[in-house]
C-alpha cells in the first residue's frame, strides 16, 4: 500500500469523529419562565421551582436550560415576554406571578405545554376546563390569594378593633382587583367598617396612594393581592413602619421583611410543585391530565417586633391562631 493511501485510510474516519460525536450529543430542553413579579422579590420562589425540577430529575445547566423573563409589576409587558419565549421554541412555558402572566402564556401558544401560577379561579377566567381535567395544553396552580381579602380584613380588625378608617391599597390593572375590592366593601359593610380605597398602578401612583392614607387619617391598611405590590414589598413595609400604621399583607415574606401581620398560602410550596409538574411534562406527561393544584397550607404570621414598634398589644386569641410568631 502506498504511503498516500495509508494516510487517507487513517485520516478518513478521524475527520468524521467530531461530527459523529456532535450528532450524538443529547438535545437539552429549554424552559421558558416568565413572571409578573421581579427577580429580586422572587429569588426564593425560583429556588423552590428549581428544587421541584430536581425532584423530577432535572437540573439547570446540566440537563435543562431556563430562560427567565420578569415584568417587574408592569403587566403590559407580559404578552411580549410570552411571545419571545415561544419564538425560542421552549419545551415548556411557565407563566407565574399573577393571573395576567398565566393568561399571557396561554394566549401565546396552543401547542407548547403551559404551567401557570395565579391567585384566582382558573376555570372562571377560562384558563382550564376544570380543576381535575384541565384539558388542552395548560395546567398549573392557584393559591387563592384573591379570595382571602375578607379574611385578612377580619384579622386586621381583631388587631385594631377601634380603627375608624382602614385603607385598602389596590392595583386596578390587576384583573382580580375589582372583585377583591367588592369583597372587602361587602365585608366592611357587614361590620360597620369605613374603608378608604387607594389605587396604584405605578410608582408615582403608589407614592400618591400611600400619602393619601396619611392625609385621610387611616388608622391601618390592607394591601390587596397583586404582583405589583410584591415587587415594591420593602418600600410598602418601610412606609408602614415610618408612619406607624398597622398593615396586613398576603404573603409571609412581608412579615419576615418587617411587616406586622400576613395571611396567605404557602407560595414556596406551590412553586416547588410547579417545578415537579414541568419535570413530569418533560418526561411525557400531558398537561390535560395533570390536575390544577391548590394550596394545602396557609400561613398566618405575626411580627411581634413590628407590633412593639407600633405600640400594639397583640390579642392572645390572634397569637394562638398564628402559625408563626416572629420575635
Could you write a compact summary of the structure shown?
44% of the residues lie in helices and 18% in strands. The chain has 327 residues and is of the alpha/beta class.
Write up what this structure looks like:
The protein has 327 residues and is of the alpha/beta class. The chain has 2 domains: 30-144 and 266-297, 3-Layer(aba) Sandwich (Rossmann fold), CATH 3.40.50.2300; 146-265 and 299-326, 3-Layer(aba) Sandwich (Rossmann fold). It is 44% helix and 18% strand. The chain has helices at residues 3-24, 43-55, 78-87, 99-108, 149-159, 177-191, 203-215, 227-231, 233-242, 252-256, 267-282, 304-310, 316-321, and strands at residues 30-35, 65-70, 92-96, 114-118, 138-142, 165-170, 194-199, 220-223, 247-249, 261-265, 298-303, 324-326. The strands form 2 sheets. A 7-stranded mixed beta sheet has the order 7-6-8-9-10-11-12. Helix 2 packs across helix 11 and helix 3 (78-87) packs parallel to helix 4 (99-108). The chain is elongated, with a radius of gyration of 25 Å.
Amino acid at each position: 500500500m502506498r504511503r498516500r493511501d495509508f494516510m487517507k485510510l487513517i485520516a478518513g474516519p478521524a475527520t468524521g469523529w467530531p461530527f459523529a460525536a456532535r450528532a450524538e450529543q443529547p438535545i437539552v430542553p429549554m424552559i421558558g419562565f416568565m413572571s409578573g413579579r421581579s427577580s429580586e422579590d422572587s429569588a426564593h420562589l425560583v429556588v423552590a421551582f428549581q428544587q421541584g425540577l430536581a425532584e423530577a430529575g432535572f437540573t439547570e445547566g446540566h440537563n435543562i436550560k431556563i430562560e427567565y423573563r420578569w415584568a417587574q409589576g408592569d403587566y403590559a409587558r407580559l404578552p411580549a415576554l410570552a411571545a419571545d419565549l415561544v419564538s425560542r421554541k421552549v419545551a415548556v412555558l411557565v407563566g407565574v406571578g399573577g393571573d395576567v402572566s398565566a393568561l399571557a402564556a396561554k394566549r401565546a401558544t396552543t401547542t407548547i405545554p403551559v404551567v401557570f401560577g395565579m391567585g384566582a379561579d382558573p376555570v372562571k377566567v377560562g384558563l382550564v376546563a376544570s380543576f381535575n381535567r384541565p384539558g388542552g395544553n395548560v395546567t398549573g396552580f392557584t393559591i387563592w390569594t384573591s379570595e382571602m381579602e375578607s379574611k385578612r380584613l377580619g384579622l386586621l380588625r381583631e388587631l385594631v378593633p377601634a380603627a375608624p378608617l382602614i385603607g385598602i391599597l389596590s392595583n386596578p390593572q390587576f384583573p382580580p382587583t375589582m372583585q377583591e375590592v367588592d369583597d372587602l366593601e361587602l365585608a366592611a359593610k357587614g361590620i360597620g367598617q369605613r374603608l378608604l380605597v387607594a389605587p396604584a398602578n405605578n410608582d408615582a401612583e403608589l407614592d400618591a396612594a400611600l400619602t393619601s392614607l396619611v392625609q385621610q387619617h387611616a388608622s391601618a391598611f390592607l394591601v390587596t393581592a397583586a404582583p405589583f405590590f410584591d415587587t415594591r414589598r420593602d418600600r410598602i413595609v418601610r412606609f408602614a413602619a415610618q408612619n406607624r400604621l398597622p398593615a396586613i399583607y398576603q404573603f409571609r415574606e412581608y412579615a419576615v421583611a418587617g411587616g406586622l401581620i400576613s395571611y396567605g398560602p404557602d407560595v414556596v410550596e406551590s412553586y416547588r410543585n410547579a417545578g415537579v409538574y414541568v419535570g413530569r411534562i418533560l418526561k411525557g406527561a400531558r398537561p390535560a391530565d395533570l390536575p390544577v393544584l391548590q394550596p394545602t397550607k396557609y400561613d398566618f404570621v405575626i411580627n411581634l417586633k413590628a407590633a412593639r414598634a407600633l405600640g400594639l398589644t397583640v390579642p392572645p386569641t390572634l397569637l394562638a391562631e398564628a402559625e408563626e410568631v416572629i420575635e
